[in-house]
Amino acid sequence: MRPIQKSNKLAEVCYEIRGPVPEKARQMEEEGHKITKLNIGNLAVFGFDPPDEIVQDMKINLHNAAGYTDSKGMFAPRKAVVHYTQGKNIANVNIEDVYLGNGASELIVMSMNALLNTGDEVLVPAPDYPLWTAAVSLSGGTPVHYVCDEMQDWFPDIEDMRRKITSNTRAIVVINPNNPTGALYPVELLLQIIELARQHQLIIYADEIYDKVLYDGAEHVSIASLADDVLFVTFNGLSKNYRACGYRAGWMVVSGQKDHAKDYIEGLNMLASMRLCANAPGQFAIQTALGGYQSIQDLVGPGGRLLKQRDLAYKLLTDIPGVTCVKPKAALYMFPRLDPKIYPIADDQQFAYELLAETKVLIVQGSGFNWIAPDHFRVVFLPNSDDMIEAFGRIAKFMEGCRKRHGASF
């Protein structure tokens, strides 16, 4: 039989958060091993429940959720998103500018499919949330990674971004708050990115899914609120702020200068219609979530569980010799660095494999986020304190073994 091969469009697509190392972890679980999963921000499995009023509203409305909705989504949740954007000071958004999706992920892929032709380039951060790189590649485009500078709190390097803009560049992706680094970008930096987009007539795609997961009194400013002469496409949803990953309830908002983008918007409408609609039960959760009590503040504020676990994880990691980390100001992750003089790692996927095999702790290697060197990895700080102390203790012991093998001493 002639082998059936995957599409060539998948040749440059990877998603290591659910890649070969997690597959090995799944096999180990089937063999009876208990794996501590620090690889994905799946809040429910760590006891972070969605607000009860969201759950109850979905239950009450479930009998109304069997039919297709409007291809962009139901009126009430889209209107709630309009109000949300107004609260973020994003101007001139109406209900037709809002698209609901099966999570922000579906809409990210849709936005790239509607834009890109073969040879088109999109600036994507390094490190990035890898769906962005995958979506650009799958849509026939070329992801071009601009560097975020660890020495500058993981802020984008504007000059590196400027150097990588060509006549083929169509857009800039901004992930703020950032996954995987936990960086939060100041207004001054966002204005510089806008100026680049303005000069080169680029679209700005703003991934803001963690805009309420903020620590130490930090405030998030939506980049789309800072200009009206650039086209912005902003993504958000219920997965993180409302601990509702499985509800797959996200949205995309088109704002800014739209007059010259009518054909692109027509493409978005076409793709929205082709998938018929987003899941209706998840749509029923949006209005209640956005208009209700914002319980995320209890988790990230003083004494909150997420804040305490961030601080604990930071201490546990940076107490390991040769491990440094920029303390995250937002989101659910840390992206620590391994000093290459102490840990001369050539293949960070192999490092993740070995760590998993020896410690039963699952992480994601830095190259899974399109980082440029095999010297980082990402962990979530979602397990409760006792479990985190246990897991990070096993990582510390593993790193001690690495240091001994490479002759490093402290």
From TrEMBL:
Cofactor(s) recorded in Swiss-Prot or TrEMBL: pyridoxal 5'-phosphate
Record carries keyword Transit peptide: no
Aminotransferase class I/classII large domain sequence ranges: 34-386
Transmembrane feature ranges: none
Enzyme class: transferase
GO molecular function, one term: valine-pyruvate transaminase activity
Keywords noted in UniProt: Aminotransferase, Pyridoxal phosphate, Transferase
Pfam families: Aminotran_1_2 (PF00155)
EC number: 2.6.1.2, 2.6.1.66
Highest taxon in the source lineage: Bacteria
Family: Belongs to the class-I pyridoxal-phosphate-dependent aminotransferase family.
Protein name listed in UniProt: Alanine-synthesizing transaminase
Naturally occurring in which organism (per UniProt): Duganella violaceipulchra
